[in-house]
UniProtKB/TrEMBL annotation:
Species per Swiss-Prot/TrEMBL record: Streptomyces benahoarensis
GO molecular function: riboflavin synthase activity
Taxonomic superkingdom: Bacteria
GO biological process, one term: riboflavin biosynthetic process
Listed PANTHER family: RIBOFLAVIN SYNTHASE, RIBOFLAVIN SYNTHASE ALPHA CHAIN
Documented EC number(s): 2.5.1.9
Keyword 4Fe-4S: no
Oligomeric form and interacting partners: Homotrimer.
Lumazine-binding repeat windows: 1-108, 109-205
Protein name: Riboflavin synthase
Length: 220
């Protein structure tokens, strides 16, 4: 579990694409995985094999660490569902270690399970902040509400406003300086993780949910 408070702006130092064959019965599915090496002296301090580190909001498992770098395997499904497939050597990435039990929850509850990708459609700089508009898939729009929480490339942010196909966020100078959101351009993809609480509420109150007819009537 993460909080969406980026600890370090890291860098991809190596990418090895692995031309895997899809498992039987999954013809047509993405057929390649990758191994990334990433520089992140802060997040690798004390990290070891099997630990988790969020990379642009995607929870990855550490294979090994050395000299301030770590390697992680990324399966085909993750490359297909997130923006990690677009990373190349030299790409900057947001890095965060899992929240320690009993630690401060500085952002909001973030699982590191990306729900989909969005696209930056507009950046409007201001004197002390910048307003960024992001288009998102229709199936995610119902989970995004004004003043609610959303994770963008692993950064916990508050939604300024939301419509059926986009939302806006306001970025302070610290976020612009210390995360990839300061260097992403219009047209660039970003990883999105919506508030997990919204998904659980929808599941519980929907048809066939554990709460049954009584809850459905209450919602109406």
């Amino acid at each position: 579990m993460f909080t969406g408070i980026v600890e370090e702006l890291g860098e991809v130092t190596a990418v090895e694409i692995l031309g895997d064959s899809p498992p039987a019965g999954t013809e047509g599915a993405p057929g390649r995985s990758a191994r990334f090496r990433l520089r992140g002296p802060v997040v690798t301090d004390g990290a070891g094999h099997g630990d988790s580190i969020a990379v642009n909001g995607v929870c990855l498992t550490v294979v090994d660490t050395a000299d301030g770098e770590f390697t992680a395997d990324v399966m085909a499904e993750t490359l297909h569902r997130s923006s990690l497939g677009a990373l190349t050597v030299g790409s900057r990435v947001n890095l965060e270690r899992p929240m320690a039990l009993g630690g401060r929850l500085g952002g909001h509850l973030v699982q590191g399970h990306v729900d989909g990708t969005g696209t930056i459609t507009e950046r409007v700089p201001g004197e002390h902040w910048e307003i960024v508009t992001i288009a998102l898939p229709p199936q995610l729009a119902r989970y995004v509400v004004e003043k609610g929480s959303i994770t963008v490339d692993g950064v916990s942010l508050t939604v300024v406003d939301a419509t059926d196909d986009h939302f806006t966020i306001s970025l302070i100078p610290t976020t612009l300086a210390l995360t990839t959101l300061g260097i992403k351009q219009v047209g660039d993809p970003v990883n999105l993780e919506v508030d997990v609480l919204a998904k659980y509420v929808e599941r519980l109150l929907g048809p066939g949910g554990a709460t049954g007819t009584a809850s459905e009537g209450a919602v109406r």
